[in-house]
Amino acid sequence: MPVNTYEGLFIFDSNRYSRDPAGVPGQVAEAVGRQGGELLVSRLWEERRLAYPIKGHRKGTYWLMYFRMESHKLAELDRDCRINDAVLRHLFLKIDPRIADAVVQHALAGHEARSRRAEGAGGKSSAAHAGPAVELGVDDLEEETADLAED
Asked: φ, ψ for residue 48 (rounded to 5)?
């Protein structure tokens, strides 16, 4: 079976996320691992007010993940996300194989640069993540995809 790279965007219950910032995305990371997937990038996007209530919630925490997984196992991951009460909504997108490696490499480079800046400032990264995943800025990703589109 082919292994593809996917982008997963999740809206988490903000109340649960604020009580356990590492646990909520960790549950999804564990689900990826149970399906034989490899988590590449996991990062907080933002917390914001929702345009309309979802399952009675007016605020949500947006979380972005990149992972590799066999395509036929994505349906089981979808099921795991649907039954997880902390996940209000989720969306999976298949990343074009021509840019998948560039996105991952850019994420690794961005993570190293942020780590150096955080060490210089004496602070820590505020985004919690599980496993070998790295932090990727949304602006960084937009710049990278724009550069690739120009080529």
From this structure: -150, 165
